[in-house]
Amino acid sequence: MRKTKVIVVDGSKFIRTLFSSLLNEASDIEVIETASDPYEAGDKIKQLAPDAILLSIDLPKMDGISFLDKIMTHHPMPVIMISSLTHEAADITLKALELGAVDYITKPLEARLFTDLDGLRVELAAKVRNAVGANLKSMHLKAISKNPLEFTPSTNTKHKVIAIGASTGGVEAIRQVMLELPANIPPVVITQHMPEKYTEAFAKRLDNLTKVKVHEARNGQKLNVGNVYVAPGGKQMSITGDRASGYTIKIDDGEPVAGYKPSIDHLFESIAKTCGSDAIGVILTGNGDDGAEGMLKMKKSGAFNIGQSKDSCVVYEMPKAANENQSVDIELPLQGIAAEVLKHCV
């Protein structure tokens, strides 16, 4: 069996050694080289033609974002960014995803804080496999619209709720959908698999780019027209209330659902219970099957559900799982999703 060839690029010898050691324990992955800066990495990429790169955002001689831009311009390949759990790193990592990085992995600020090596081993290998299997073409086919679609609300619009779930590739997919939504859209709730600090940066980025008001969700917030609420990393988000009194966000420190916190299934199941046929569900690109069971419950409660099409997904696993359990009413390319959502908001 041919192994996936990886190059690890990080200014820290400790990180290069640790990540290489953990990845080499996987039977199907081999770290063929490491590099401490972009110039060294560039030479090794040309010589060895790796299948994927783990690239730090913080590098000597040239920052990781500038190097990523060069890679994606001259030699596009699967890149996973190595980042940290800080607000500044979150902003830079979101920029990297916009430039074409498939995914990212976070590291603590201090090496001594690596406590769950087994979890890190599993996460590293999974992210490499997902990146190598990602549909890189979809990341370059998105003609981003900067003009929201026209929308004329009806008397029913104020009762509608739009629920979106995404994982790998979802940062850019959500951005595309949000750019096309007008300021008078019904409330939108989003669960995107992200750690704490990243969801705050993600919400702020969307808020600056779009016509809608985007927040990192807070416990007790009321859902309002023209507002988008992003589930905070490391927490679970659900929706309570009813049609008559309105809907409220609940944020708690509940257990992970199938390993996810925030969990798409957790959000979607609450939407099924509270919103019923007033809900529109959207499942976007991502690995695994989070959201499929919750979307099925939404379907049974009368919601209309949309799945992202395979060709436009970076990773099709989540929409595929929802499609296979027959919870998706229609599959569409990314550019058609916002228009379909609006059709069901009147």
Describe the structure.
With about 350 residues, the protein is of the alpha/beta class. The chain has 2 domains: about 5-135, Response regulator (Rossmann fold), CATH 3.40.50; about 155-345, Methylesterase CheB, C-terminal domain (Rossmann fold), CATH 3.40.50. It is about 35% helix and about 20% strand. It has helices spanning about 15-25, 40-50, 65-75, 85-100, 115-130, 170-180, 200-210, 265-275, 290-300, 315-325, 335-345, and strands at about 5-10, 30-35, 50-55, 80-85, 105, 160-165, 190, 215, 225-230, 235-240, 245-250, 280-285, 305-310, 330. The strands form 3 sheets. Strands 8-9-7-6-12-13-14 form a 7-stranded parallel beta sheet, sandwiched between helices. The chain has a 5-stranded parallel beta sheet with strand order 2-1-3-4-5, sandwiched between helices. Helix 3 (about 65-75) packs parallel to helix 4, helix 4 crosses helix 7 (about 200-210) and helix 8 runs parallel beside helix 9 (about 290-300). The longest helix is centred in the middle third of the chain and has 16 residues, at about 115-130. The termini are far apart. The mean pLDDT is about 95.
Main attributes?
11 helices, 2 domains, five-stranded parallel sheet, 36% helix, elongated, seven-stranded parallel sheet, Rossmann fold
Please summarize what this structure is.
The chain is α/β, with parallel strands linked by helices and 346 residues long. Helix content is 36%, strand content 22%.
CATH topology of the largest domain: Rossmann fold
The whole-angstrom Rg is 20 Å
| Strand order across the largest sheet | 8-9-7-6-12-13-14
Query: Largest beta sheet, briefly?
Result: 7 strands, parallel
Helix content: 25-40%
Total DSSP E strands: 14
Count of alpha and pi helical runs: 11
> What is the ordering of alpha helices and beta strands?
EHEHEHEHEHEHEHEEEEHEHEHEH
Contiguous low-pLDDT stretches (5 residues minimum) are: none
Strand share of the residues? 15-25%
Structural class: alpha/beta
Distance from N terminus to C terminus (CA atoms, Å) equals 54 Å
Number of domains: 2
Query: Shape, please?
Result: elongated
CATH architecture tag of the largest domain? 3-Layer(aba) Sandwich
Could you name the CATH homologous superfamily of the largest domain? Methylesterase CheB, C-terminal domain
So what's the CATH class of the largest domain? Alpha Beta
> What is the residue-mean pLDDT, rounded to a whole number?
93
